[in-house]
Amino acid sequence: MTTTTRATAALLLATLIWGSTFVLVDAVVDHLPVHSFLAWRFTIAFLALLLIRPTALRGLDRITWLRGVVLGLALGIGYATQTGGLAAGTLPTVSGFITGMFVVLTPLLSAWWFRTRMGWSTAIAVGCAGTGLALLTLVHGRIGGGEWLTAACAVAFAAQIVLLGRWSTPSNTVALVLIQIGTVSVLEILMAVIVDAPPQLPHNAHAWLGVAFLALAATVYGFLAQTWAQAHMSATRAAVILTTEPMFAALTGAIAGDRLLPRQLLGAALVLTAMYLVELTPARKGGRESAEARIPHLEP
Questions:
Q1: What is the domain range of residue 91?
Q2: Could you give the CA distance from residue 194 to residue 207 in angstroms, rounded to a whole number?
Q3: What's the rounded Cα separation, in Å, for the pair 237 and 8?
Q4: Distance (Å, rounded) from C-alpha 283 to C-alpha 121?
Q5: How far apart are CA 102 and CA 156, in angstroms?
Q6: 88 burial class (0-12, 13-18, 19+ CB within 10 angstroms)?
Q7: pLDDT digits 0-9 by tens, 131-148
Q8: Domain count of the fold of the chain
Q9: Which of 37, 98, 129, 253 is deepest in the core (most CB within 10 A)?
Q10: Which has the closest alpha carbon to 13: 185, 200, 228, 208?
Q11: Which of 99, 73, 107 has the alpha carbon at shortest distance from 18?
Q12: Are 40 and 213 in contact, with CB atoms under 8 Å apart?
């Protein structure tokens, strides 16, 4: 097996894990408050990553810490709103496709904040994604609260990716990942103390297994596998693999009992089309690799 084949398999496994976690998170937050769940998940993930790379935070300057905290705040808002949307009743399948819209929002925010050029493919993708979102979420002419929270998650993830694209370097990548996960951990512990009053433990072995799987497989393995895999494959190959995540979310959602209406299936197809337009058109033209092709954030 060649290195490229192993990298493809590692990234595909990570993408499958991320897609399956929408259903798992939906099940866990039925029994555990959102902020307590996220506090446990990200504290375990931070400690595990720190054990793997114990020297990653040594000798960092003040600006790296500050940037890592800002990125972590955006990441924390994204995870909190995404998980809150699932707790509010958004179907895991719908959550997966709404979250995937961050791929389309990323170049929009970049164009707004940093005056980067937005090509015709992005403009078409925005129209596809907007139409797809409406078909996925509109019920009796309105969007539910859980879907609004999930849409806010997509905006937060897009903001995090735009800033990470500006601030990350090969020398500080692992440090920024650790600071971000640590920031989310601290933020969610504080929120659990304030909102859950007091923070709650997972109630049984199944809940503990779910939290541990999300912390170690979806977060620790996902970040490390994607970082390693991207060093051994083209951006185009990675983009194709990463944009299959909503399809894995839809598959696991269907197995768990999600049933989408025909118009929702059309909406999901439009969102997926928008993701491919944004990711693959620049790659075919030999343009700059998009931020999404480097950083995984679709998983809940």
A1: 3-293
A2: 22
A3: 8
A4: 12
A5: 8
A6: middle
A7: 988 888 876 667 888 999
A8: 1
A9: 98
A10: 228
A11: 99
A12: no
Residue 53 lies in a domain: yes
Judge whether 100 and 244 are in contact, CB under 8 Å. no
Question: CA–CA separation, 136 vs 262, rounded Å?
Answer: 10
Do the beta carbons of residue 279 and residue 228 sit within 8 Å?
Answer: no
In the three-class reduction of DSSP (H, G, I as helix; E, B as strand; rest coil), residue 300 is classed as coil
- Measuring CA to CA, which residue among 25, 57, 34, 67 is closest to residue 219? 25
pTM: 0.84
Residues, the chain: 300
126 domain residue, yes or no? yes
272 in any annotated domain: yes
CB 47: neighbour CB atoms within 10 A?
A: 15
- Which helix (H) or strand (E) segment holds residue 280: the answer is helix 262-284
Res. 235 pLDDT band, cuts 50 70 90: low
**42-65 per-position pLDDT tens digit:** 999 999 999 999 999 998 999 999
DSSP annotation string for 216-265: IIIIIIHHHHHHHHHTTS-HHHHHHHHTTHHHHHHHHHHHHT----HHHH
Whether 299 maps to a domain, the answer reads no
Residue with tokens 């408050």: 33
Residue 288 DSSP SS3: coil
